[in-house]
Specification:
By secondary structure, the protein is an all-alpha fold. It contains nine helices and no strands. It starts with a helix and ends in a 14-residue tail after the last helix.
Length: 238
Amino acid sequence: MESQKPVKTLSRTLITASLLLLAIAGYYGWELQAAYRYTIDRVIPQESAAPYPLTVSSLTANQQAALLKIEDPNFYHHSGIDLKTPGAGITTITQALVKKIYFERFTPGIAKIKQTLLARFVLDPLMSKEKQLRRFINTVYLGPNAKDFEQAAHHYFNRSFDEISDDQFLALVAMIIAPETFNINKHPARNKLRVARLKHVINGDYEPKGLFDLYYGRVDRETLQNLPPLSYFESYYQ
């Protein structure tokens, strides 16, 4: 009789775990279904009618190539998520859009699972890459007075977007990962160093060493304290 107790305990544990997994699967299944319907009924129609100041063609070929090389190297080939491409990090352009579209408040952690599922099974299948990129350049946060690339061009350079130089464009791209930390006006030296490193990557002179190689070199202690959590790994630069 005693030998049967561990078996019964194991059986109850397996049943409990199975029920928990079914509940989790059911929850995310319901969330995905609701988001799918919401995207078809609301997101896509609103996106088509959005009066954005920029289109994808507002970017020159060099600007588009530079933006994708830094922000999402495999953008046109992945299905919303990319955990393989060196230098991609764990947030694609699609996932960045998901955070803004489907979350009132995004808290890193468990929300990352939902963000990833929505990117893979809802937004990427329903919104073309062209529309995703258009939305991104018109909604990317570059500071309190710069909610997109057009506003950022006016705010930082007192020019319209189509008047800024490629170097000025890269100065804006340098801010995307941490707008305050690499702010053009507040921290020009940091921004300038990051732009120089971006150029090495874009020109092929530097190959990211792994998925989380997002800074392409060491950063100083003060800069490190103001970077997004789990975005900098000094082991790449030993």
